[in-house]
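To: structure desk
From: M.T.
Subject: fold request, one chain
Message: Could you run this one when you get a chance? Sequence is below, nothing fancy, just the single chain.
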Amino acid sequence: MNKALTLTFLFLFSFVQAQNYYYSSTPERNRVIRLITSLPEIVDEKKSFEQHHIRMAAYIDHVPTKNQKYYYVTIAEDQHDRLMPHQTFLVNPKTNEINYWDILNDKIVPLKIWRKHHYKDQ
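Reply: Done. Structure tokens follow.
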């Protein structure tokens, strides 16, 4: 049994690495991650990473709770032994509303505004 779990983990880990993203265990979480990883800005960033032989990871930091309605999805560099976060997005799973978390100023910025102002500096 333990050997089967280990082999399953290795298989899943290999698949995840091949995709350059980290996917979660539930269909809804996978859908939320795909919303972020399919943004044109993230697709472009992934291409830029790949040109420099850097792998990109996308993972869920926080899940919605009774008091907080968003998934927090982080885009990071996968440096094998650690992840270096680049951006964090908030996704409302009921409406698919996407916001950017400006960590430096601790502000939630609508995607439309982030695209106008912040993306140019990235």
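Reply (cont.): The radius of gyration is 15 Å. Let me know if you need anything else for the meeting.
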